[in-house]
Predict the structure.
Amino acid sequence: MKTLMDMLPALAFLAAYLVYDIYVATIVLVVGLYLAVVVHWLRTREVHKMHLVAALLATVLGGLTLLLRDPMFIKLKPTAVYAAFAAILAGSHFIGSKPLMARIPPAVIPLPEHVWRKVNAAWAGFFVFCALLNLPIAFYLSEQTWVLVKTFGFTALMFLFIIAHIPFVYDYLPKEAPAAANDDGAPHA
């Protein structure tokens, strides 16, 4: 459910872009990001900080896009968001008792501190990579290509990056207990 909520503003942006233009899509994106913040708050009574950062940056850069009628500002939003996430993750190595990724409830994945530090650093590096990758796409490729890459390309990259973590955290994932056997060696039904 959370993944769908994360994707809805981007999908609404894409739909508005395909039906209208970049300016209507920008308005839809900003509204969609704030709706994601509100929906998360209504469900959990907590503000989702990543959604809020994205909404605030979209407001500033989207506002400039609309005010100056220059789509380059909204095209720089992914770079700004990814750079902010990278800075927050990197800063968490020095602020607080644990890196930010280790503050995920331990029930999700119980990892030792040194592994969390590596995972946190890897995510910070990944977000730096995405921030930099958006620049040539935004500046040198068509607007439509940028919209498609922003919507699907970065999502696919993130999914692949998550999958790439499996070999490094596999030994720490919870294992299912083997089924108990009867006296004859057959599992209980």
